[in-house]
Amino acid sequence: xxxxxxxxxxxxxxxxxxxxxxxxxxxxxxxxxxxxxxxxxxxxxxxxxxxxxxxxxxxxxxxxxxxxxxxxxxxxxxxxxxxxxxxxxxxxxxxxxxxxxxxxxxxxxxxxxxxxxxxxxxxxxxxxxxxxxxxxxxxxxxxxxxxxxxxxxxxxxxxxxxxxxxxxxxxxxxxxxxxxxxxxxxxxxxxxxxxxxxxxxxxxxxxxxxxxxxxxxxxxxxxxxxxxxxxxxxxxxxxxxxxxxxxxxxxxxxxxxxxxxxxxxxxxxxxxxxxxxxxxxxxxxxxxxxxxxxxxxxxxxxx
Length: 303
Prior knowledge:
By secondary structure, the chain is of the alpha+beta class. Helix content is 19%, strand content 31%. It has helices at residues 93-97, 104-110, 240-248, 250-260, 276-302, and strands spanning 2-7, 10-15, 19-24, 31-32, 41-46, 49-54, 58-60, 63-65, 71-73, 78-81, 85-88, 125-130, 137-139, 144-148, 155-156, 167-172, 175-180, 187-189, 192-193, 198-200, 205-208, 211-216. The radius of gyration is 45 Å and the shape is elongated.
């Protein structure tokens, strides 16, 4: 498993195997950082999960976590240590891209058959990071879910310090809200006790009894390209009956042409052009008539 230690602009990757690792400023710490208390953190790595226990209160993500309480660290979360040192588990980009991105309707159906893994959905989720159900992920498969110890609770917690119906998560538009329903041990978001419903953002920490849930906001589906517009159908010529109807109403057609006609004067009509063959034939006929007339006059003169 890979972790990252960040100090200002420097990032140091650390590859670890399953087991227990200590982080601090002491000579016996597995990961030694000057300026940190001896044995500040104890990391337990197992099957891709990181469990952290601190001898002091540390800020994990958006909330301050108490000392000596084991806490699951979700990929992408940061542990803020003294001297501006940050310890985090980076997101696996390849795994993130290969997710199924199943929607809430798909999750609601497939959860019953066990065919979908909670991390393979773009639906909102609760991940239990501390408490009896530590390590479990609860996909949110509807727009309103109850959280509590009751058998019919959609997010059922096996924590005796949690009420049967402790809180309710619901969605309005694109925003998720949580509403406290029990005063038993209170309901906290990022360390602040709730008195009324409040919006939840990605990464917020919800505390109920001895259970700590981390809210994972829903991811949007990949943008889909709009389908290409259908090709325009070719305009077919009017049917014969339509031509007949148009010819039966010359006044209407003439009126439409006059309305669409330009205001400029129409050009004068041109005289028809006579083909040259007709001109030659006409001249030949005239010459023949003249020749006959001349011959007749000559005969009368000689007689």
